[in-house]
Every structure is written in C-alpha cells, then in structure tokens.
Amino acid sequence: MGRQQTLAKFFDMP
Amino acid sequence: MLEAKLAEAGTLKKLLDAIKELVTDANFECNEEGINLQAMDNSHVALVAVHLEAAGFKRYRCDRPMPLGVNLTSLTKVLKCAKDDDITTLKAADEADVLNLVYEAKNSDRIAEYDMKLMDIDSDTLGIPDTEYDARVTMPSAEFTRVVRDLSQLGESVRIEVSKEGVRFASEGEAANGSVLMKQTDDDEDTQAITIEMNQHVSLTFSLKYLVNFSKSASLCPRVQLMMSNDVPLLVAYDFGQGYIRYYLAPKIGD
To answer: What is the ipTM of this complex?
Structure first.
C-alpha cells in the first residue's frame, strides 16, 4: 500500500 | 570532561528501548546544555531526536562539547547490569575512548562500575525545517501504542486522517481491514483526553512497523503528540520532564 518515501526529500541532508 | 548523574537508571533504559531497534550506533552529543542524539534508521525513512536537559540531572557538568560515539547494543547490555532505581553516573574524559558508568544502589552500599568502549561515528546533524503543522493530536501514549499494535496485525500501513470528527487510523490487510476513530474529548485537563487542533483536514499514510517502534516511548511519558501536514513527515513527540524524544517518519505515497 503506497510507496515509501525517504526523509531526504524533506530534510536538508548533509 | 563529562559527568552526568541521573536519579534513576530506568530513564536511560527506557530511552534505549525506545531507539535501539531504529538505530544501531549514534553519537551522544554532550554540551553544557545537556545531551542530544539525532540519528536516522538505515533506510533513511525515520529519524529519532533525543534531548536530555542538563537541569534534569542530579548533577551535570560538561566543560566543552563532545560527541560520545555509542553502540546502542553494547550500551543496552551495560545498562541491563543496573537496577532501575540505581543512581547512575556517566563519565567521560576529553578525547576519551571509553564511557564510564557507575551504578549506586539507593538502599544499600553496592557500587558497580563499568567501562564501555566508545567508537568514532561519522554523523552529520540533519537540518530539520521548522514546520507549521496543520494538525496536532494529543492523546494518551498507551492509546496510541494500542492502536498501532492492533492495526499492525492486519496490514503494513496505516492511513491517519484528522478531521473535525476526530482522528481516524485505518489499515487495509489482505485478510481484514480495520479502522479506529478517536473523537476529541471535552475535558482537556484529563490525562485521558484526546485533543485535536486543526487548520485543515489531513490524510497521510505511514508504515506501521515504524509507528510500533516509536510507540515504545510510552514507558517514558503518558502523553504523545502527533503533528501532521499533508505530504510532510509525521512528527511523533513525547515530552517527559527531563527532555524529549521525537520521531520523524516519511509518508508513503500513492497506492
């Protein structure tokens, strides 16, 4: 059910 | 150097229980304000942030900022050697490669001392943007634990919907579907209250596996807050007197 996104899209990854 | 004396080992044990399945190694960043930890799980889907305030310790001293690289499995083992109500002191010298833990029994003369190896961990702190959330749900943490555990029996994901009606948790599985609606209660002061603050209707889907993991923090705090906006990570926040533990979870999209 649905595709899991990662936090990279939302947070400033170093 | 760091010297941090906690009234009870139990607090640290519960904290470790609440993060050790998400993260294996983490830096405990110590500074004069307290101890912080921020780490993502391997798949970069969830992030946990812990803060322990200096004022929450019986005694706290940290002369300059220092990261303590800790293997959480090892720390869990060393903490198992403490009784929950042991007074616990964490000590580390500057540039040290060991963390010293001392457990003092409350009602006897037993003093136990352990040294645990520290490790170098490359970790950069992520920038978490300040977010104005469209919905905030505050509820008893035990209720949240129960809902996510129940629904995790049925399916992998849960849709969380916040509306004027209340907050609805719904899961679809191969064999069964389920949904739990929790309505806002009238009395905000009640510890069992469910409070909903909402600017707009939100509906998001999350992996239950992670939420079940987060819900282990219920042992630290009787209340939990869920902060949500459409298409941004969920924030699950547990504020206990001495600090907080916050989890961020990226949503799932599409069907």
So the answer is: 0.92
Cβ–Cβ below 8 Å for A11 and B126: yes
CA B63 – CA B86 distance, rounded (Å): 25
Spell out which residues of chain B touch residue A10, defining contact as CB-CB under 8 Å.
Answer: 129, 232-233, 250
User: Per residue of chain B (255 residues), what is the pLDDT tens digit?
Assistant: 999 999 999 999 999 999 999 999 999 999 999 999 999 999 999 999 999 999 999 999 999 999 999 999 999 999 999 999 999 999 999 988 999 999 999 999 999 999 999 999 987 778 888 899 999 999 999 999 999 999 999 999 999 999 988 999 999 999 999 999 999 988 777 788 999 999 999 999 999 999 999 999 999 999 999 999 999 999 999 999 899 999 999 999 975
What is the C-alpha separation between B222 and B142, in angstroms, rounded? 7
Helix, strand, coil % over all residues of chain B, rounded to 5: 20, 45, 35
User: Rounded to the nearest 5°, which phi and psi values hold at B93?
Assistant: -80, 165
B130 CB within 8 Å of a chain A CB: no
Alpha helices by DSSP H, listed for chain B, are 9-19, 72-80, 141-152, 208-214
Which residue from A1, A10, A14 is facing B233, i.e. has the nearest CB? A10
Q: Is B233 on the interface with A (CB under 8 A)?
A: yes
Crossing angle between the packed helical segments B9-19 and B72-80, to the nearest 10 degrees: 150
